[in-house]
Design goal:
There is one protein chain. The chain has helices at 5-8, 11-44, 69-82, 91-110, 138-144, 154-157, 162-174, 178-188, 191-203, 205-216, 228-246, 253-271, 281-290, 296-314, 318-334, 339-354, 357-363, 371-386, 394-397, 402-405, 424-440, and strands at 58-59, 441-442. The protein is mainly α. The protein has one domain (49-442). It has a two-stranded antiparallel ribbon. Helix 4 (91-110) packs parallel to helix 10 and helix 12 crosses helix 14. The longest helix is centred in the N-terminal third of the chain and has 34 residues, at 11-44. The radius of gyration is 22 Å and the shape is globular. The chain crosses the membrane at residues 24-45, 65-81, 93-112, 173-199, 211-244, 256-286, 298-319, 339-359, 371-390, 422-442. It comes from Phytomonospora endophytica. This is Integral membrane protein. Keywords: Membrane, Transmembrane, Transmembrane helix.
Amino acid sequence: MTTGPGERSLHPIREQTGAQLRDLAIWLGLVLIGLLTAALAVAYADDLGTAAAPFFGRYRIAIKPESILAPLIAAAVVYTASRPRLTRVRWPAILGLAYISALAWTLALALLDGKDGLRNPLAGTDGYLPNLSNVDGPGDFLATFTSLDDQLTAASVGHPPGPLLLLALLTPLLGTGLGLGITLTALSTLTVPLTLITAKNAVGEPAARRYAPLLILAPYAIWVAVSMDGITATILAATMAAGAHASRRTTRGIPAITWALTAGLLLGAATMFSYAAAWMGLSLVFLNFARRRPFHNIATGLGALTPLLLAQLIGFNWMTGLRMAYHDYTNRIEYQRPGLWWAALSLVVLIIVTGPAIVASARKMRNTPGWPFLIGATAAVIFSIAAGLTRGGVEHAWLPLFPWLTLAATAPATPGGPPGRLPLLLAATGAATGIIVEAVLLSPW
């Protein structure tokens, strides 16, 4: 029996809608298994070190007048994304709209805890602000950083000196209150347009446009507000955008080398904020080889080493800082929290906070031209688990990796095929997840 043209044209829509439903069903199944795992961990583990497994923090119910903001913004984003007219909006305007929407979404989630949601994450006893008195000057601080381990809080010891140096620069201008929180949140949210720029380069503009609502309404936006790991995410997103631009077919000669060098400099800057950021260098290496630009790796490598060498000349040895962070970790955390349980719980957190987009992205990893970005982020996750470094708090530690794990969600299902359908169902589910988690979880970050 033959089918008419009108009926044939509906088949791709039915198939793609069915794919969204399958992705959602798989994700819900994984979340259910994860929550059961968390319940078993609470019941049988000696001490998980948290009252809010699989997350770090404690559970409570927070429903306030401000609680209406996040659902309203999520609804506005989903509605706007569904308008056919949006397909005719120019790409720079899409980036601007995405940034404004993501910033509003992130601030709305933070404000579920009132103004404290934009003040407290850095000010706790394990945060960064208590250590600002140790920063007399950038040079002296870098030179003495690795000798201050017994004077620094957990957050400061666990990271290179970049976060404290940035805060020392900003606090004289903004203070340590609301102004600082909003500024850091605005800087961290730049991850969204920068990731979209990379997505356009990697999987095409149509797929990048469809990816926007998933990225804007990502549940992990909870930990973007007032987050130094959010700053790392922005620097890494700029790194990937520069590297992708350098390896484009139309970028040749000196401009290509300049962009490759810039990507390396940004990667080196990111490693001064997070030791784990170095893993995303794999994405640049794979990308350059995949696009037949292997010599770009030389420029990128030299760029990445430059910030580290400058810090070395001043007195900060990156490897010594890494050993200091690991020593603190093994003495303060590792022996107290069961590694096998937290390896499983960390994957549960990853599945929840990336939303159903993680399933859609993983399903297309083999066929997406954006695979180098997924591989770099996946390698970082696997290494963290294998090395026993995941014993609570990956919701913020892995924050710079989350966008790259979901990059392929709207990529073509087959090489050269059409981009995925606009994933409004998945975006709405991700938004609902963020709202629920923020309402029941009091996180120290």
